From TrEMBL:
Residues 167-292 form the Type II secretion system protein GspF domain. PANTHER family: INTEGRAL MEMBRANE PROTEIN-RELATED, PILUS ASSEMBLE PROTEIN. It is a multi-pass membrane protein. One of its GO terms (cellular component) is plasma membrane. It comes from Lederbergia citrea. Keywords: Cell membrane, Membrane, Transmembrane, Transmembrane helix. Its main location: membrane. This is Type II secretion system F family protein.
Amino acid sequence: MDALIILSVILFWFMIILTVRHSSVYIKEKRQLLEHVSEIAYTDAFEKKKKQLNRRVVLFQKMTKYADEFADLGQRINFFSENQDVAVLLKKSGNKYQLTVARFQGMKIFLLIVGFFAGAMSFMIGLPFSQYAIIIFPIIGYFIPIITVRNQAKKRQEALRLDLPDFLDTISTSLHAGVSLDQALKEVIRFFDGPLREEFSRFNYEVDLGVPRETAYRNLLDRNDNQEFQGLIKALIQGQKLGVPIATTFKIQAEALRQIREEQIKELAAKASPKVTLVTTFVVAPVSILIIAGLMLLNLIYGENSIFTLF
């Protein structure tokens, strides 16, 4: 009877995982189809993504409203998540779920409690290794928000770096054509998606509200720690103070970024060579030797010139 219960639980969780997988595939294909239709219909695909993201944000906020109850406790239990560090990470990640520092800290404790009850439930059911789940699940729940925000910040900064050279070339061309910087930014960012569009849209909005240009530049530096992006903004600040032509600054920065990207690719290729050699030496070569030795041994035993025919 116990074996039947365990088998039923395993089958239940297997079906849940299968359902989640197929649901994610369906959502991904649906998103791709919507993007394709929006391209054909000549509509702004970015607006559709924005609306879809807002629905996700509303759903997430409904799910995480219980985290506010644990906000005070989370701010006191702040291992690997100091309030200042969390605030910086939320800025760098784009904070697409509109989390405050207090809600983030509460979410951490809320998931810890959920993980504890999940581990206790698995222990009562008698799942394999359930005695460790009571400790492991709460730890996983505690670190899920921290790891998620860190990964989002890293991906966002990487996406920002990849789009910079093309963006700078386009801006430089517009400036050489006689367009002002503000107008060039407003026109060019319409053709870019992701964090680059978000950051410069916010920059334009701040400038339109009367924020000094240098202060808006400083805000860009505070929200992003990508070295290439920070180098561009610092160059713009220096160019504004010293009177250097902005079009020249954009062109030089674009060429420098492409050169840096080329050097990074060469560095990654150089690092990959020892790894390939290591795999070849300790995996491919021994397996090949074992296969050849096995074939020779089988030939000696069962082949036409078998050792048994000598007797």
